[in-house]
Every structure is written in C-alpha cells, then in structure tokens.
Amino acid sequence: MSTLEQRYNTVNRHISSACEQAHRSVESVKLLAVSKTKPAHMVATLYELGQRAFGENYLQDAVDKITALAHLNDIEWHFIGPIQSNKTRVIAEHFQWVETLDREKIAQRLNDQRPKELAPLKVLIQVNISRETQKSGIAPEQVESFAKVLEQLPQLSLQGLMCIPEATDSEHVLAAQFDEMQQLLQQLANNHPQCTVLSMGMSNDLALAIKHGSSEVRIGTDIFGRRD
C-alpha cells in the first residue's frame, strides 16, 4: 500500500470516527481532497480508490490537471481559492463547483460565462464568520440578500455555505463560529430548500466541524503530504 493510500485511508477513518461521535451517518459528510499543487497522477490514484471530489486554488495548475484527467467522467472539481475578475471565464468553463463566492460582480460574470451546454455551476456562499476585516467572505447578516441575487442567475445553482473560521486554538471560539454557520444554513434552507451543503472543517478541526453540522470537510496535507 502506498503512502498516499495509507494517508487517505487514515483521513477517512478520522471522518468515520467523528461521525460516530456526533451520531451522524458517515454518508452525510463528504471529503473534499484539496489537491492544489499536487500532480495529476496523485489525483488519479485517489480516484481509483473511490475519491471523486477535488479542491483547487491555483487556476492554471488546476486546468492542467482537469485537462489531463478529462477522461474521468464523474470526477468533480471544486474551485476553493479567491476569484479575480480575469479568471471567471476559465473557472466557469472548467469547474463543477465554486465554494468561494462572495461578490455579486463575480457571480454575474460566472453566470454569463458558464457554457450553456454545461449544467449550472454549483456555488457556495463564503461567509466571513469570524468577521475579520482581512478575510474574504460576506457578513453573516448578508447571506439571505446575496442568496436572492444568486437565485436570479440561471447558470448558477446555489447549494449552501462555506467558511474558514478564525485561526485559533480555542475550541470554544471555533465551536461558536461553526454553530453560527449551522444556524445560518438552516435559515437559508427555509427559503432555499436546495441548500444543504455546509463546507467547513479542515485537518485540525474536522471533528468539531462535523459535530456542528458540516457536510463537507476540506483536507489537503493530511492526504497528499506537505507542499513544496
């Protein structure tokens, strides 16, 4: 068994354990393997092990992999980096998911540039749940108004929310932020019932995020190893 496979299996065991502790079905939590900067052959290996969803931050690196692995029909590419206006066309043409949407201008461009022959681009609203001025994401109180904007864009399909919580060792602070995200999703789903995705939790806070309702955890280094 390769080191990559061992790490992948270990992460899946951690997710299963966290689900068991939270009294949740393991099927209710999706693993997004963050493959940024890692080569296509590593992605292909994980695909053969059953992994389907991969997260990318760097556009040209991602497009190279997407092109190389285009024969894998059910592979799922998520863009999880900051989105600049000059990158929207490439993202709209190559990805199935965008998890970092927080500006109306970007949403409009993605909608207009999504090829009509493709299914609508699935999107998550990025929420600045820690309310840090330097961080991307919309304020929690703006979620519903932004969702109404997105609902008017036919080439986008709003699926839920995403956050990157405060970088802190305080489990109490993290738990409060994850809990608020869970409440925000529940409120969003009242008016937008298709919104079921809550993307939060990474290697260090995976179990806590799952306890507070995360439906997708984003794991990179623990699967792929350290980045050069």
Strand order of the largest sheet: 7-6-5-4-3-2-1-8
Which stretches are poorly predicted, pLDDT < 50 over at least 5 residues? none
Question: How big a fraction of the residues is strand?
Answer: 15-25%
The end-to-end span amounts to 23 Å
Number of E-type strands: 8
In the CATH hierarchy, the third-tier topology is known as TIM Barrel
**Could you report the average pLDDT, rounded to the nearest whole number?**
97
Structural class: alpha/beta
Rg estimate, integer Å: 17 Å
Fourth-level CATH superfamily = Alanine racemase
Please report the number of helical segments.
Answer: 9
Shape: globular
- Number of domain units: 1
Characterization of the model:
The chain has one domain (3-224): Alanine racemase (TIM Barrel, Alpha-Beta Barrel), CATH 3.20.20.10. It has nine helices and eight strands. It has helices at 3-21, 40-48, 59-68, 88-94, 104-113, 143-151, 171-191, 206-211, 221-224, and strands spanning 30-34, 53-56, 76-79, 97-101, 121-127, 156-163, 197-199, 216-219. Helix 5 (104-113) links the parallel strand 4 (97-101) and strand 5. Helix 4 packs across helix 5 (104-113). The protein starts with a helix and ends with a helix. The model has no long low-confidence stretch (mean pLDDT 97).
Concise account of the structure shown:
With 228 residues, this protein is of the alpha/beta class. It has helices at 3-21, 40-48, 59-68, 88-94, 104-113, 143-151, 171-191, 206-211, 221-224, and strands at residues 30-34, 53-56, 76-79, 97-101, 121-127, 156-163, 197-199, 216-219. The radius of gyration is 17 Å and the shape is globular.
